[in-house]
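User: Hi! I'm working on a homework problem where we have to compare a predicted structure to a textbook description. Could you give me the structure for the chain below?
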Amino acid sequence: MTLKHNIKIILKDKCNQYIDNKIDILRNEINRTKESVANESKSTAGDKHETGRAMMHLEQEKNAAQLKKLIETKKILNRIDTNLQPDTIALGSVIETNHGNFFISISAGKIDIFDKSYFAISLQSPIGNNLKGKKENESFTFNSKTYRIESII
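Assistant: Happy to help. Predicted C-alpha cells:
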C-alpha cells in the first residue's frame, strides 16, 4: 500500500469516527428525551405539563430528523472506494492545492495527518462544487483566491 492510498484510508476512517460520534451523541439525546417524556407522563396533569410534554415531542421529532440526516451522510461516506484513482475530482478524491488540501467526502472539518491538514468537504460545498470534475494543474477562483490543483489522489 502506498502512502497516498493510506492517506485516503485514514481520512475516510477519521470521517467515519466523526459521523459515528455525532450519531452516538444524538442517540443518547434521543434516549434522554424519551426518558423525560416517560417521566413527564407520570407527573400530575395540567396545562404546564401538557406544554412540557409537547415541547419534548417536538425535540424528539427534531432529533429523529437529524439522525436520519446523519445516517444519510454515513451512506455517502460508505460509497467512497479508497482504491479508486480517478483522473478527475469526484467523491473520495484527495486534492492538494496551492491553498490547502481537501478530501471530497462529507463536511467534517479539518483533519490533521502526517503533518498535513486536510479539509473534509462535500461535493455540494462551495469549494467542492468548484473542484468537481477538475483535473491536476487546473485552476479555479474562490473568494478572490486562485486555487491550482497540484495533485489528485
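For your comparison, note the following. The mean pLDDT is 90. The chain has three helices and six strands. Good luck with the assignment!
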